[in-house]
Design a protein that fits this description.
Elements: E1 11-14, H1 16-21, H2 27-53, H3 67-95, H4 97-115, H5 121-149, H6 155-164, H7 166-180, H8 188-210, H9 217-222, H10 226-244, E2 254-257, H11 264-274, H12 276-297, H13 300-308, H14 315-339, H15 342-365, H16 371-398, H17 405-420, H18 423-432, H19 436-460
Antiparallel strand pairs: 1-2
Helix pairs in contact: 2-5, 2-6, 2-7, 2-8, 3-4, 3-5, 3-17, 4-5, 4-8, 5-17, 6-14, 6-16, 7-8, 7-14, 11-12, 12-16, 12-17, 12-18, 12-19, 13-14, 14-16, 15-16, 15-19, 16-17, 18-19
Length: 487
């Protein structure tokens, strides 16, 4: 039986963080990425399903919803994401990463599967809310756990690749709906239900894999559970050694202060006073990428059908190359976030994606593009924008202390989601006007937000590449790393 936790405020001598960071990449790390990173794939699948199923849900043979009611179900899912992020973000800091990433995935899987059994609008909205709650809660628990388990030298590229896997889900959703919404394959009344059920089944196996994932040794350590932290780390080291062989020598111990569970006021002081420059940076990056993506991605099909005459049932085919470009951006550029550095890469990808959208939007306004070249131009823009957006999640995860990491991620995510919620409707109204200049001006607003965030990153960005999570935090005297002496 483990001994009682060390009291908050106690300084302990430990090398647990350093031992985690010195581990070589192994099959165990890959399992962690697959088991935890599937969250993003599931969210992409969910977004793709909802987008493609919207018109079908208006048919009398399905739920017979109006266009407004379809919009309401999407809004309910969005509210669920915000509520889940805030509630489970707080709980993952209090109760641990493992417990929460099991709970949130179970909620999502159950609610998504039940969505396919809903008899009408009311019940459907209830299940959509809880599906959103599960996914929103996943972001806080999963991003915290991944950053705390992946070696510092690889954290950037791994985080970006995990976040980029959202687009694998988008492609899966597009393929699933193309198959299940074909009345020659499945009757229309059942195709949409099977699509939701399949989304639930795809994630079921991951729930069992996650049961064998260890609790974050860093979280256990900061809560004074020293023996449990050591035991968790030994389990990880044994697994890594089995696939990699003898491990590097353990580094020397260093002092670390146990914080224990902290309250809302402590979190507010860290975000608004102690690390306020990082808070400004995180908000700028998260809000900008949300505005950018919500405006373009959710109106992509409308632009293709209204301005290029693409049939409604063919619009989904253009989503697949768009999603492929979004996936490869973080995967291929992630290496440079660890090698060239966070500040340079974050600032450059934000500014470049904004500038490219202006150029693409101008070509659209002038009528120089057709449906294919428009899609190609979007692929180029979002190759860089996807890496930029993924780096926003990396930033808000790695720059805040273990004791508030989950809540910090949740607050930034919820704020960005609420701010960006109106952008699809606003751009939709511009598209509805039929005016190319009006749509271009909408793109310019999203591009300006990205460029502004890139400039903020150039001045406030933190050179976190290769540094342990502990190195990035203030010292016992409250001093920040030298690069942030002005904070």
């Amino acid at each position: 039986m483990p001994s009682a936790p060390v009291a908050a405020g106690t300084v302990v001598q430990t090398n647990i963080p350093q031992r985690l960071d010195r581990l070589p990449w192994s099959a165990w790390h890959l399992r962690v990425v697959l088991a935890l990173g599937v969250t993003w794939t599931l969210d992409g699948l969910e977004a793709s399903l909802v987008t493609n199923l919207g018109p079908i849900l208006e048919e009398r043979s399905t739920l017979g919803l109006t266009a407004t009611q379809v919009g309401v179900t999407n809004a309910v899912y969005l509210v669920g994401q915000v509520v889940g992020a805030l509630a489970f973000g707080r709980l993952t800091d209090l109760w641990g990463r493992k417990r929460l990433f099991l709970v949130t995935l179970a909620i999502y899987l159950g609610a998504t599967g039940l969505s396919g059994l809903a008899p009408g609008l009311g019940v459907f909205c209830v299940f959509r809310f809880f599906a959103g709650t599960g996914i929103g809660g996943e972001y806080a628990a999963i991003n915290s756990a991944i950053d705390e388990l992946i070696p510092a030298r690889l954290r950037g590229r791994v985080d970006l690749a995990v976040n980029g896997s959202y687009w694998i889900g988008v492609v899966l959703g597009a393929c699933v709906t193309q198959l299940l919404l074909d009345p020659r394959v499945v009757p229309q009344a059942w195709g949409w239900r099977l699509a939701f059920l399949l989304g639930s089944v795809l994630g079921l196996g991951i729930l069992f894999v996650r049961r064998h994932m260890p609790e974050s040794p860093r979280w256990l350590l900061m809560h004074g559970r020293i023996e449990e932290s050591e035991a968790s780390l030994r389990t990880i080291e044994t697994a890594v050694a089995q696939s990699h062989g003898e491990l590097p020598e353990a580094p020397p111990r260093a002092p670390l202060r146990v914080t224990g569970a902290v309250g809302i006021l402590y979190t507010a002081r860290v975000l608004l006073k102690r690390l306020r420059r990082r808070t400004v940076l995180g908000l700028a990056l998260m809000v900008a990428q949300t505005l950018f993506y919500n405006a373009v991605f959710f109106s992509l099909a409308l632009v293709l059908t209204r301005f290029y005459g693409v049939p409604v049932d063919h619009a989904g085919r253009y989503v697949i190359p768009f999603a492929v470009g979004n996936f490869f951006g973080p995967v291929l550029l992630g290496h440079f976030f660890d090698v060239v550095g966070r500040r340079v890469m974050i600032a450059s990808t934000y500014v470049l994606s904004g500038a490219l959208l202006v150029a693409s939007g101008y070509a659209f306004q002038q009528g120089w593009l057709d449906a294919t070249t428009q899609t190609v131009s979007w692929c180029v823009v979002f190759f860089f924008a996807s890496a930029a957006a993924s780096s926003a999640y990396l930033t808000v995860s790695e720059l805040f202390p273990v004791e508030i990491r989950g809540m910090a991620i949740a607050l930034f995510y919820a704020t960005a989601t609420l701010v960006g919620a109106s952008s699809p409707a606003l751009l939709g109204a511009l598209i509805e006007s039929g005016s190319r200049p009006a749509v271009f001006h909408g793109y310019v607003v999203g591009a300006a937000a990205m460029i502004a965030a890139g400039i903020v990153a150039a001045f406030l960005g933190v050179p976190a590449e290769g540094k342990s999570l502990e190195q990035l935090q203030p010292t016992e005297a409250g001093e920040l790393p030298p690069a942030e002496a002005g904070e």
